[in-house]
Amino acid sequence: MSDLAHDDAVAARFARLKARERILEVSGLVKTFDGKDGERTVLGGIDLVTHRREFLCVVGPSGCGKSTLVRAIAGLETIQGGEIKVAGRRVEGPGPDRAMVFQGYTLFPWLTVLRNVSFGLRMAGVGKVEADRQAGQWLDLVGLEPYAGVYPAQLSGGMKQRVAIARALAIQPRILLMDEPFSALDAKTRARMQTYLIDIWRKIDVTVVFITHDLDEAVLLADRILVLKANPGEVVELMEVPALRPAGGRSLDDPALKATLTRLEQMIHRHEPSDDDREAGAPVVRLAAAGDEVD
Ligand SMILES: Nc1ncnc2c1ncn2[C@@H]1O[C@H](COP(=O)(O)OP(=O)(O)OP(=O)(O)O)[C@@H](O)[C@H]1O
C-alpha cells in the first residue's frame, strides 16, 4: 500500500470509529484524596470520549492517576467533580456493564477454571447448567476449554490471565477495564497475550480501556492512546495511532508506529517531574522506552 493510500485507509478507519456510539463519556472528572498534608487533587478535570468497540490505552508517569481513573469508571471510587457516563447512563457505582482485569491474578483458587468463569453469571442469577455452558464458550474463546476442570494453581501466569479475561467477558460488559494486566508476565508470554487479546476483542462487541506502562504495548494495541501527566492528573493528549490492524498483528517495524512511539516518548519526557518534584520526595517517574532495557 502506498503511503497516501495507507493514510487514507487510516483516516477512514478513524472516521468509522468516531461515527460509532459513544460508550464512555468522562467530563470534568475530579478526584481528590485526603492525605496527611490535606486534600490532594489526583485527577484535575479529565475529559474523554470513547466509542463503541474502541481499544483505548492509557499511559502516563507513575502516580498520574491511571488506576484511579479506571477505578472511577468501574464505579469503585467516589468522585468530587464531573461525571462519567457509560452508554449514556451515569455511573453511580459498579455494574455489569463494566468488568475489570487486574495485574495480579484474582481468580478464586478454590474454584475450577470453569467455575471461576461461570461465577459472575451465577451471581447474576443464571442457572448452573446454562452458566456452565456459557462459561465453556468463553473458555473456548480464550483457548482454554481443555482446562475447564483444573484449578488456577495448575495454570501458568498467562493462562490465569486468559481465564481472568474470560471471566470478565462472561457477564458481557460494554467496557472491559484492564489495569496493567500483562505487566507481571515475561516478554514472550506478554507478546502472545497481546495477540490473544486483539483476536478476542475483534470477535466481540466490547470497548477496552487498557492501562499500561509500556509504550510499545500501547502502540501495538490501541486505536487511541490517552496520555496523562501527573500532579494533578490531566490529559496531555488523546493520540490516534496511525496504523491499521494487519492480519498478523501490528509490528514495531512499521514506520508509522515508530514515529508514534517517538512522539509519545518525547511527550512523556516533557511532562516528567521536575527536580523540585523529586527533591520534594515525589516518586521518580519514568516509563520504559523502546531499546532501553536493563540487563
Ligand atoms: N486510596 C487512596 N488514598 C490516598 N491516595 C491515593 C489512594 N489511591 C491512590 N492514591 C494516590 O493517587 C495518586 C494516583 O494513584 P494511581 O494509582 O491512580 O496512579 P497510577 O498512574 O495508576 O500509578 P502507577 O502507574 O504507579 O500504578 C498516587 O499519588 C496515589 O498515591
UniProtKB/TrEMBL annotation:
CDD domains for the chain: ABC_NrtD_SsuB_transporters
Domain ABC transporter span(s) in chain numbering: 24-255
Keywords: ATP-binding, Nucleotide-binding, Transport
Keyword Transport set for record: yes
GO MF annotations, alphabetized: ATP binding
Signal sequence coordinates: none
Region (Disordered): 271-295
A Pfam match: ABC_tran
Family: Belongs to the ABC transporter superfamily.
Name the record gives this protein: ABC transporter ATP-binding protein
Organism: Methylopila musalis
Lineage, opening ranks: Bacteria, Pseudomonadati, Pseudomonadota, Alphaproteobacteria, Hyphomicrobiales
